[in-house]
């Protein structure tokens, strides 16, 4: 195994697609539910911006559920973009997506997207201002009624939270995770994941200009929100 934490260019990236399902209960359900949350603002031929598309789960899952949606997938990692591209080709879905190596700033800020996802990405950013900047840059690329899905690992400083997280190995083991890989992952999460509380994350999404932010998914420490500009009666 390589030495850098969460190295998407190397071993972590190569095993990501299998491993992530072993450590996040409901991973695929989260992606499908993201589509259901985006659907109200999306026409049949919606354009969806996928930030940190990784191995392509958002594009494949939503692409199957919504056969006329088109995706622009962006990822910092050339290896993950390559993996995503290979998967889309093998599933005959390559024409459903445009893939870009880079960040949100490499996408024209022309408000052309009906929806966007940013799933398991901003928890790698250390600074709150960088998380706000990412959400805000996505916002600028959405149509006025466009919706954003954010999902991240969150943190809570309580013994109950730590006891709950200690049980995660039981799920991972039962789903085939190797102990050595899991322990390395745990160490990477401890040293390198920049997770914040769910309340703080919701505040940062609002600071990026979204007036309505609603949490719709929680699985252990993973939370997901729908962010939009509609005024809801909370
Ligand atoms: C944990 S994976 C999530 C992949 C996918 N969204 C999913 O749900 O499985 C995070 C991905 O985001 C990419 N990434 C991290 N920071 C990024 C950034 N600022 N802009 C674009 N991609 C980024 C990584 O290279 C990696 O492929």
Notes on the protein architecture:
This protein has 234 residues and is of the alpha/beta class. It has one domain: 3-Layer(aba) Sandwich (Rossmann fold), CATH 3.40.50. Helices cover 42% and strands 21% of the residues. It has 9 helices and 7 strands. A 7-stranded mixed beta sheet has the order 3-2-1-4-5-7-6, with helices on both faces. Helix 5 links the parallel strand 4 and strand 5. Helix 2 crosses helix 3. The longest helix is centred in the C-terminal third of the chain and has 14 residues. 39% of the residues are buried. The mean pLDDT is 96. Bound molecules: S-adenosylmethionine. S-adenosylmethionine binds next to helix 3 and strand 2.
Based on CA atoms alone, the radius of gyration comes out at: 17 Å
Proportion of residues in helical segments: 40-55%
Summarize the main sheet: 7 strands, mixed
Q: Mind telling me the CATH class? A: Alpha Beta
Structural class: alpha/beta
- Largest sheet, order of strands side by side? 3-2-1-4-5-7-6
Low-confidence runs: none
Which assembly state applies to the chains in this document?
A: single chain
Mean pLDDT score = 96
- Count of distinct strands: 7
Element order: H for helix, E for strand? HHEHEHEEHEHHHHEE
The CATH homologous superfamily is termed Vaccinia Virus protein VP39
Distance between the termini: 47 Å
Assign the CATH topology: Rossmann fold
> What hetero molecules are in the model?
S-adenosylmethionine
């Amino acid at each position: 195994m390589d030495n850098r934490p969460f190295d998407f260019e190397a071993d972590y990236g190569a095993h990501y697609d299998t491993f992530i399902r072993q450590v996040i209960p409901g991973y695929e359900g989260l992606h499908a539910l993201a589509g259901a949350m985006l659907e109200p603002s999306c026409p049949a031929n919606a354009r969806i911006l996928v930030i940190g598309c990784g191995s392509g789960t958002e594009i494949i899952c939503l692409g199957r559920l919504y056969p006329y949606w088109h995706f622009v997938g962006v990822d910092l990692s050339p290896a993950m973009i390559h993996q995503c591209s290979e998967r889309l080709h093998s599933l005959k879905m390559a024409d459903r997506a445009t893939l870009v190596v880079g960040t949100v700033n490499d996408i024209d800020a022309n408000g052309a997207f009906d929806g966007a996802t940013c799933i398991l990405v901003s928890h790698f950013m250390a600074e709150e201002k960088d998380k706000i900047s990412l959400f805000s840059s996505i916002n600028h690329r959405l149509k006025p009624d466009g919706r954003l899905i954010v999902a991240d690992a969150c943190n809570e400083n309580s013994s109950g939270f730590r006891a709950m997280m200690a049980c995660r190995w039981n799920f991972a083991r039962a789903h085939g995770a190797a102990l050595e890989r899991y322990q390395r992952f745990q160490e990477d999460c401890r040293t390198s994941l920049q997770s914040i509380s769910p309340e703080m994350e919701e505040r940062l999404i609002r600071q990026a200009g979204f007036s309505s932010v609603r949490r719709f998914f929680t699985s252990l420490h993973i939370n997901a929100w729908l962010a939009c500009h509609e005024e809801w009666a909370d």
